[in-house]
Amino acid sequence: RLTEWEVDTLPGYRGASPVRAGNDAWRQYQGDIFGEVMIALQSARTLGVAEDEFSWPLQRALMTYVEENWRRPDNGIWEIRGPQRDFVSSRAMIWAAFDCAVRAVTDFGLDGPVKRWIHLREEVRTEIESRGFDHSRNTYTQYYGSTGVDASLLLLSQIGYVAADDPRMLGTVAALEEELLHDGLLMRYRTESGVDGLPAGEHPFLACSFWLVEQYARSGRIADARTLMDRLVSFCNDLGLLSEEYDVAQSRQVGNTPQALSHLALVRAADAIAEAAGRERV
Predict the structure, then answer these.
(1) Rounded Cα distance, 214 and 272, in Å
(2) How far is residue 146 CA from its own chain's centroid?
């Protein structure tokens, strides 16, 4: 437990307030984590890491929980403090969990109810396409019934739910560029909507901008990917570290520092550019 409390006796960085200790997100239900765990374990299998006597039974138990709970609204990847909703990126991660479970059986010979998992994988996809895609604008939405978008939708191509150059993904990118780009950097979502239960206003989120670099590279916009990548890397401090957000007006990093998610997204973006450059040479 990381019970959260405000430290009213301390000033934050350059007077920022409030200063908090702990994190109330431990109380939340975040449906995306199941996909993230299963993707990591599937990647380990692909790289030759052998299952031990406990690892696959634990994954089977996890998938049983997912089967029973995947329809639950959640707080999403951003630990939203407003009402729980059916966030599209969370549902896509649920799809990824079933997809990884299916491939563990079909590709690696592990035991499991593969027919049921295949059925549930397709059921999740059908729901996302019918309730989480705005056909009038050709974009996936932040959550079911929403008209807004969210930078976490960029994860849909990363996890293999949809190809980076699929028309639906390209339409989503266009919507993100229209609604969430701020001075060339990507916001997580529109805070004015009040979806997160917090006051409006935040700076662009660095990981999201790196996700956009990756999307550009994998969809053929290599020049755009390189331009944005060069700018983002220039934000690194003297130790080569990145924070959570970037204050464009003040030309400074802000938020949690160093931020692992920013660095992970940087590595993925660099890999995508290198792969795209290799395709160009061929």
Answers:
(1) 6
(2) 18
Instruction: Count CB neighbours of 183 within 10 A.
Output: 9
Owner of token pair 């990981």: 207
Helix (H, G, I), strand (E, B) or coil at 5: strand
Q: Note if the pTM is more than 0.70.
A: yes
Residue 247: enclosing H or E segment and its boundaries?
strand 245-247
Q: Which residues of 67-88 are buried (b: 16+ CB within 10 A; e: fewer)?
A: beebeeebbbbbebeeebbbbb
Distance from C-alpha of 182 to C-alpha of 208, rounded to nearest angstrom = 12
pLDDT digits (tens, 9 = 90+) for 24-39: 888 888 999 999 999 9
Contact 265, 245 (CB under 8 A): no
User: What letter would DSSP give residue 199?
Assistant: -
Distance CA 10, CA 37 (A): 36
Q: Is the dihedral of CA 87, 76, 195, 163 positive or negative?
A: negative
**Residue 158 corresponds to which tokens in the numbers above?**
């990363």
Q: Which letter does DSSP use for residue 103 in this model?
A: H
Q: What does the pLDDT look like over 213-261, one tens digit per residue?
A: 999 999 999 999 999 999 999 999 999 999 999 999 999 999 889 999 9
What separation in angstroms does the CA of 36 have from each of 17, 96, 160, 235?
32, 8, 13, 28
Going by C-alpha positions, the residue among 203, 151, 158 that lies closest to residue 179 is 151
